[in-house]
Structure formats: structure tokens, C-alpha cells
Design goal:
Length: about 90
């Protein structure tokens, strides 16, 4: 988040990430790219909610899995604008 230049962004949406362990939500994060914030919790302004297991989130974050592949393999559940999940 510290590396994001607020004056030069291509994505300015608000995402909610539900991270699951054993099929149950273990932690919910909000990635607010409008205000350049990341925090644990919820927001009424969320435009896209993504639910993913902790293992698949790790694979997404380390480059072992792309969002498109995760969607195709039913490893991501997207509520809201699916186009935002692919940005």
C-alpha cells in the first residue's frame, strides 16, 4: 500500500476479501484503493467482495495462481462486479 501513488492510479475501487480456513471465513480485509487503505473489517462502500481460501490467497499473492485461473477453477467466489476482480 505504501508504494501506491495516489495521484497515479489505474484502479480506484473498494474490495472486500473474505479469507477462509476450512471453508469458514477466518478474516475479512478491506482494500480501499480510493483512499489507499488496507484494514481488517468491513465497509458499506465495497464494490466487489472476493472470498478465497488462505492457501489460494497465498498462491495469488506469490504469483502461483492468476485471478482468471482461480475463477476458472472455482477457487474464487466473487460477489459484485466480476470485472473488478480481474483488475
Amino acid at each position: 500500500i505504501e508504494k501506491i501513488d495516489p495521484a497515479n492510479r489505474q484502479v480506484e475501487n473498494i474490495y472486500k476479501w473474505n479469507i477462509t480456513v476450512g471453508g469458514k471465513v477466518a478474516k475479512t480485509w478491506v482494500l480501499d484503493l480510493k483512499n489507499v487503505k488496507l484494514y481488517v473489517g468491513d465497509s458499506p462502500d465495497v464494490e466487489c467482495t472476493i472470498t478465497v481460501s488462505d492457501e489460494d490467497m497465498y498462491a495469488l499473492g506469490t504469483g502461483g495462481l492468476t485471478a482468471k485461473d482461480a475463477l476458472a477453477q472455482d477457487k474464487l467466489d466473487v460477489d459484485g462486479n466480476i470485472e473488478l476482480a480481474l483488475k
